[in-house]
Design goal:
Radius of gyration: 45 Å
Low-confidence stretches: 241-256, 382-396
Number of helices: 15
Number of strands: 16
Structural class: alpha+beta
Strand order of the largest sheet: 2-1-5-4-3
Mean pLDDT: 76
């Protein structure tokens, strides 16, 4: 009932104006909206993934630095705890304070303070004991002599292990505040275990806060102890104050990925300690807003430009079709007038041209038959001129080759072997430049034509010019860009040797080394200053075609085209030391390209 023909007729019934609008909405505007929405969603997801990866790296980096500080302090605590002299002196029972102070000056004085200068992350080292015969002072304290029991002692209650990491508020009237300490029992020696001895190494909270502060560009870090309390906050030093991890301000959706937890380690003394990172969502939103603005601008440009183009196209089509329809209506009145507008080369232009031709033909058949004959002769003359021009463009190269061949035959007959060799090489070189289409040729063939060029130079300068080839036979069949070596040789002869009057030398070397093909052309010319060399290399990489180094630039672009950034163009030169120019191509790229061409 509604077959293809019916659908086609319905479409044909739609005015051209509405067809263009339908085409614009369905084929331009709608795809632009869909693509930009998809691109925005994808870009937003990529931004979030990238930022969350950075956040994970940030918290892992901070966690690694904190763990290194803690491990350093644990190693020091084990070293001090294993000091037999300290254990023996602290385990003695002294008759009076004088006896203790003698032992203190002999064994204990400055025994702990020396570590605080060696370890910058440690703020204080203390030893606590219940040996009442020693005197509290310096770095040694009697537990029973303190007004209050040390708050960290409870860290060992009901727990396994002799080493603990603890955070607590110190009530010391001289220096109260937050302490993060590595605590260890000094019970290594059974012979010196009459009294309980505890070693306390205080980490510098400022240094730990500094480690966390370095990551504040990415996220806010919270150091949580094994009791779930917030020990440090990168937004400011925290003094515990009973704050719990449950009090941490987090986004409503804790599983959104904006809150990251990372354990400090698996060792028993830091079990339960972790870093909690809270991402600054403003940064992610700022990046997403920037992406949204960019995509909106892109969508606007993508919509406005096609709208303008389609409007121009529609006006062009609509104006010419209306013009054609009005002129066709005049045929009923026998007014065979051509359409005097810019026809264009599209289908409507062809239709207008056909209409004009028909109108002119009818007009000429009725009124001006002789004008048609003049027009036909003019067209025939233009056609003959075009054919003559095409024939002339083909004759010039053939005429040149025929002339060179004739000169070659004359030189051979008259015994001018050197001149004949030069003419032959020149003819082959010109045929190569004009006739060869493959841009990649075997190195053996490229060196063969390069040698022809050098023979021509040798003929020009005679004994004043020498050249040599050092060729690796394993590289003969590797394909390189056509005229790549010859171009380097030509530059050496034109620029490097031009100012030298005698003893001109050019050396061509090819070899395979370090899994790459290396091609070098060296001359003993005047060389270049370092500034000039930088200018040549810069212009070779430039996109300007009129910088004076078109040959080198074309070689660089071809190497970049065929081998990407893996091929390298190198030029070394110094004043008075000549110039060495060449390129290096990885064998993997050469083999891969040959494999693609073979398949």
């Amino acid at each position: 009932m509604f077959g293809p023909m019916f659908t086609l007729r319905r479409i044909n019934d739609i005015p051209l104006k509405y067809k263009f609008l339908l085409f614009y909405f369905l084929c331009v505007l709608l795809p632009i909206i869909v693509i930009n929405v998809f691109f925005y969603q994808r870009n937003s997801a990529d931004i979030r993934l990238r930022e969350m990866d950075n956040l994970r790296k940030s918290i892992e980096r901070a966690s690694g630095e904190l763990l290194a500080v803690i491990e350093e302090s644990v190693a020091l605590s084990r070293s001090i705890s294993s000091d037999a002299a300290i254990n023996e002196v602290l385990d003695r029972t002294y008759a009076d304070p004088v006896e203790y102070f003698i032992a203190y000056h002999d064994f204990l004085r400055n025994n702990l303070t020396r570590y605080t200068s060696t370890y910058p992350n440690i703020s204080d080292i203390r030893i606590y004991t219940d040996n009442g015969t020693i005197q509290t002072g310096s770095n040694y304290y009697v537990i029973g002599s303190l007004k209050n029991a040390p708050p960290w002692l409870e860290q060992f209650a009901g727990r396994d292990g002799d080493v603990r990491l603890a955070a607590y508020d110190e009530q010391d009237f001289l220096n109260p505040g937050l302490r993060i300490s590595v605590l260890s029992k000094m019970n290594l020696y059974a012979a010196n275990s009459r009294y309980e001895k505890y070693l306390r190494i205080d980490l510098d909270p400022g240094k730990i806060h500094g480690i966390m502060k370095r990551e504040e560009d990415w996220l806010r870090l919270l150091l949580i102890d094994d009791l779930g309390r917030v020990v440090l906050d990168s937004a400011g030093l925290s003094a515990l104050a009973g704050s719990a991890a449950a009090d941490i301000p987090v986004p409503p959706d804790r599983d959104s990925g904006y809150v990251i937890e990372h354990s400090l380690g698996q060792a028993g003394y830091i079990a339960g300690w972790k870093l909690v990172g809270i991402a600054d969502t403003r940064r992610i939103e700022m990046l997403r807003d920037a992406a949204r603005r960019s995509i909106l601008w892109l969508a606007a440009v993508s919509a406005i430009v096609p709208t303008i183009l389609i409007n121009v196209l529609f006006r062009s089509y609509h104006y010419r079709v209306n013009k054609l329809a009005r002129h066709m209506a005049r045929f009923r009145d026998e007014r065979f007038e051509p359409i005097d507008i810019a026809e264009g080369r599209d289908e409507i232009g062809a239709l207008i041209r056909s209409f004009n031709a028909m109108a002119l033909k009818i007009h000429s058949l009725i009124h001006e038959v002789y004008k048609l004959e003049i027009r036909q002769k003019s067209l025939e003359l233009e056609h003959l001129r075009a054919e003559l021009s095409a024939l002339h463009s083909q004759v010039n190269p053939h005429f040149l080759f025929n002339t060179l061949n004739a000169l070659y035959v004359v030189c051979v007959k008259n015994g001018y072997a050197d001149v004949a060799s030069v003419i032959r090489d020149l003819s082959l070189l010109m045929r190569r430049m004009l006739g060869q289409s493959d841009d990649l040729i075997p190195l053996r063939e490229e060196l063969h034509f390069t040698k022809m060029y050098l023979q021509i130079e040798k003929f020009r300068f005679g004994d004043l010019f020498e050249y040599s080839f050092d060729v690796d036979p394993d590289a003969d069949e590797l394909k390189v860009p056509r005229m790549s070596v010859q171009l380097l040789v030509e530059n050496a002869c034109r620029h490097g040797l031009q100012a030298r009057r005698d003893n001109r030398k050019v050396a061509v070397r090819t070899k395979i080394e370090d899994s790459a093909l290396s091609v070098e052309v060296a001359d003993n010319g005047v060389g270049m200053e370092e500034e000039k060399l930088r200018q040549v290399l810069s212009e070779a990489r430039s996109d300007m075609a009129d910088n004076g180094h078109i040959g080198i630039r074309n070689l660089y672009k071809r190497l970049e085209l065929y081998y990407g950034g893996l091929a390298m163009l190198r030029i070394d030169s110094a004043p008075g030391a000549g110039t060495t120019a060449g390129f290096r191509i990885p064998l993997s790229m050469l083999m891969d390209r040959e494999g693609r061409e073979g398949s």
